[in-house]
Predict the structure.
Amino acid sequence: MMVRVQEADFDVGSELAALRRDRPQIGALVSFVGVVRAASDGAGVSEMTLEHYPGMTEKALAAMVGEAGRRWKLIDAIVIHRVGRLLPGDQIVLVAVAGAHRGEAFAACEFLIDYLKTRAPFWKREVTPQGARWVAARASDDQAAERWRD
Amino acid sequence: MMVRVQEADFDVGSELAALRRDRPQIGALVSFVGVVRAASDGAGVSEMTLEHYPGMTEKALAAMVGEAGRRWKLIDAIVIHRVGRLLPGDQIVLVAVAGAHRGEAFAACEFLIDYLKTRAPFWKREVTPQGARWVAARASDDQAAERWRD
Amino acid sequence: MMLKILYFASVREQLGQGSEELPLPAGVVDVAGLLGFLAQRGGAWEHLAEIRNLRQAVNQEMVGRDAPIGAGDEVAFFPPVTGG
Amino acid sequence: MMLKILYFASVREQLGQGSEELPLPAGVVDVAGLLGFLAQRGGAWEHLAEIRNLRQAVNQEMVGRDAPIGAGDEVAFFPPVTGG
């Protein structure tokens, strides 16, 4: 189980390969990559800055991964989230879950990104033709996270 | 929308990068990789051979991807499935779905692998210490596919 | 116009044959009829129709045994699929 | 033992300040009390507690406004998160 917050980009292929290495019991690998879109809520986005709460962010992500490991039979999971300045098309986040079977890997991966979106202290500020603005939290993200309540 | 059946291995990083390239509207990329497990139904597996029905396999996969595109708002999707001789740890299949938002990408990716497992003409034959055997279809796969019935 | 028949996986192994081409047998109008014709060969062929969960495709579409077949069609018999 | 307070994102911008350290103010025992103390500074501070959906963390755990705080704690105020 590994959690990283970094400015640098990540290579999905290498990360998935590392997750699988020497794990002969893995049968299913599900991953989610979030990407900066060139448009958001109807406005063009030329760049984005991701702020976070150093220390708490890592703790929150590790807690989510631990919770996923309690809810599902997982072999391993990683979460990598970028901070700092990003451009459209840039990767923001990788969530990857390895399991023996696909059902639990899909559920845990979706759980992790849903929880991350509502509970990990990151904030997006995007630059549009109308100026810079903080991205507003989405009710649809709260609803997605709510599905996983015990 | 792309479907490939091949003996050669595939590089997940390159395939996902190709899927994303020049698609500024993509915000979410969900992928599934199936891997040969070193054990199956309690027996060690030393190798596996995947047989398919040339022609029908490609048509069945393309039909599934088309159906996913009708059910969800997707930007693109790919399915790559290997055939021939595979060893434990080898990649078998990649299903990757790109969308503007994650909900539809997760649903379409899981739908595609569930459908593939029950409707695409592939057959696995695995070699165990007790000899070679054809892998039996799983009721759990039928149940997973059944969830997606209209 | 010949009828093409394909056999896959365990079905292919049980029959010892992967494919064949033959003229549409007289009186055969659907998959069930073709299975009846093949059963007359005796041996493993007699048990083809009784294979548990036997699947069939006509012209590369999965079908039931009531599916019509005609000269020039491609028919396939195989067990439940196990890819992915 | 100082109290450390952090402000993030739009909250940080509205207050023009990212963090501060101060002795635990007399009479402050919870997050609500700290917000009351900060409001006395006037200006943007007066409106901090009224920010819609203001979130708070004590020692890096999200909490409600009734969460107790003491000297040495790290308290943070921020808007709803939007990562991922």
